[in-house]
Design goal:
380 residues, alpha+beta, Butyryl-Coa Dehydrogenase, subunit A, domain 1, Butyryl-CoA Dehydrogenase, subunit A, domain 2, 4-stranded mixed β-sheet, 4-stranded antiparallel β-sheet, globular
Length: 380
């Protein structure tokens, strides 16, 4: 199922596809080995107007809706590297969108505009060693001291953590629970802030870090929105993040299907192509059916989100179904390639080992089921 609505969408798609073919595809293996995406990719996307495609024009963004983000994601995913897309989205959609929604004019001018122009790279700091999906349980604390906040604690599994120039950080400024959470933009060069890169089994080109705050002093003006009112901003941001991962999952699954189908035609076994065997015709038919279903559900979720309708439940359904589907698709497509799929040079092999991250990021599959149950009166 193709995502196209207008000539403008088509033009954006063509420009992005050319950029991906020229600037990203030839370099993905190198970036996987190096463990990060070069800064010039951010600046080149910014020059084309795509880095802040959903940010406000007042602060250098494109002012477009999520359909344009979906097109951006689909074309970027054609490069065959989840890590590259995670790095770009963690900056443009996760870390910066929160500031735009809740920050002061001065904060937006300083960070959102620089982010849209590719001059600064952002990271979103929410997860901690003892609080991942349970955002209300986070412990990193910020204490007001005059015109500054003093921050102590740590963050874990932070995408862009070692390359970011600022971390949009969730902190505890009040009592326990969701009512005591605030968001503060912490410059990465703040004294007392240290970062350590983590080694992962997948998404290698997206750097992931543990971040430590030791009496980090940050200007009080870096508070996003009101003190103790940050939980709502985080929850609102999760809707966009989950849609991002839904589109990524659908795009990845379709790419793997295309690779598997081509391999099935080209590879010979027992005197015929692999797709000469009915068992593989049926298995890939099931894969394609699941992809079409996931895309349809994801596009419905985007439509409701763009219209401003309550969409938490349908977005959670899309994220649950699409990411679990991508994991199943990866297993099937890896199986048809046999031993080749266990090689780092194999596209399906890399996407297979990356697939698990999609079911965990922005809320686990179990959390999605909880949201769906609570939203549809399934809880006694």
């Amino acid at each position: 199922m193709e995502l196209r609505h207008s000539e403008e969408h088509e033009a954006v798609s063509r420009t992005l596809r050319d950029f991906v073919d020229r600037e990203i595809k030839p370099n993905t293996l190198q970036w996987e080995r190096e463990g990060e995406v070069p800064r010039q990719i951010f600046t080149k996307l910014a020059d084309l107007g795509f880095l802040g495609i959903r940010l406000s024009p007042e602060y250098g963004g494109g002012g477009q809706d999520f359909w344009f983000t979906a097109i951006l994601l689909q074309e970027l995913m054609r490069a065959g590297s989840i890590g590259v897309v995670v790095a770009i989205m963690a900056h443009a959609e996760f870390a910066t969108k929160v500031i735009e929604r809740g920050g002061s004019h001065e904060l937006k001018t300083k960070y959102v505009q620089a982010a849209a122009e590719g001059k600064l790279i952002g990271a979103l700091g929410v997860s901690e060693p003892e609080a991942g999906t349970d955002v209300a349980g986070l412990q990193t604390r910020a204490v007001r001291d005059g015109d500054e906040y003093v921050i102590n604690g740590s963050k874990l599994y932070i995408s862009n953590g070692t390359i970011a120039d600022y971390i949009t950080t969730a902190v505890r400024t009040g009592d326990a629970g969701h009512r005591g959470i605030s968001i503060i933009v912490v410059p990465a060069d703040t004294k007392g802030l240290t970062r350590s890169r983590l080694q992962k089994i997948g998404t290698h080109s997206s750097d992931t870090a543990e971040i430590f705050f030791d009496d980090c002093r940050v200007p009080a003006e870096n508070l996003v929105g009101e003190e103790n009112k940050g939980f709502r901003l985080i929850m609102e941001g999760f809707e966009g993040e989950r849609l991002v991962l839904s589109v990524m999952a659908c795009s990845q699954a379709r790419l793997m299907f295309e690779q598997a189908r081509q391999w099935g035609h080209d590879r010979k076994a027992f005197g015929q192509s692999i797709l000469g065997f009915q068992v593989w015709q049926h298995r890939l038919a099931d894969v394609l059916t699941q992809i079409e279903a996931a895309e349809t559900l994801t596009y419905r979720a985007i439509d409701e989100y763009v219209k401003g309708e309550p969409a938490n439940s349908i977005i959670s359904m899309a994220k649950l179904f699409a990411t679990e589907m991508a994991l199943d698709t990866a297993r099937e497509c890896a199986q048809i390639q046999g031993g080749l799929s266990h090689m780092e040079e194999c596209l399906i092999g890399r996407l297979y080992r990356d697939s698990l991250a999609l079911t965990i990021g922005a809320g686990t599959s179990e959390t999605m089921r909880n949201i769906i149950a609570q939203s549809n009166e399934l809880v006694a």
